[in-house]
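Input.
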Amino acid sequence: MSEIVERVARALELDSYSRPSPTSVTEMFQRQARAAIEAMREPTVGMVAAAFPCEANEAFSHEDKCLGAAVCLKLGGAADVGLLEGEAVKQAAFLARDYRIMINEALK
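Output.
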């Protein structure tokens, strides 16, 4: 089972047992949906690697690999530690910010 599926399952289980029973089926499904989306707030390493070339792969350019590594660092909560510099870090910051904005909007 993938890490994100396990994370969502734990969030649903926690929501089911840690809060009062919902007053309607609709409320129950809304709570479960919110718990699932919240669990996906931070992508897993596997999700990031699938979207960005974090691994050495001849199909990707050096710039793509730098961007992928920078996105992995940004989404992982790492500050600019000087490992990567320049445009890749700037682009990664925007991509990580945009991902979090989408999750936050979904939870409104």
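The mean pLDDT is 74.
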